[in-house]
Input
Amino acid sequence: MGMFDMLKNAKDLMEQASMGQKAAMASQQAAAQPVNLNDPMWAPIEGVTLDLYAEISAGLMKNTVMGPEAVAKYAESKGVPSGGWQKVQNGWVARMGTNEPVRVRFGNLYNEFLK
Output
């Protein structure tokens, strides 16, 4: 690789880093915005709010609950309808995949519940 190629690669890497930094800043700004809890992205799934989902998820980790039956039983003990945990989990994971405010709020709540 010649000197010109190395300089061009360095320039490209600096531009990529700058774009990554801008994306991170935009993400932080989005996370700092107030949320409208009446927005449909916050609607409970099978009666389970994001807050409760985060609490249950953290509890599963904290209490090392393992296996589908044990997980379902734990979730049901926290108010999830019988047989509804998988739908709740799939629903909130899907929303987090498409809504950054949901993802950020979940992460913050989850970390708090792990304490």
Notes: The chain has a mean pLDDT of 88.
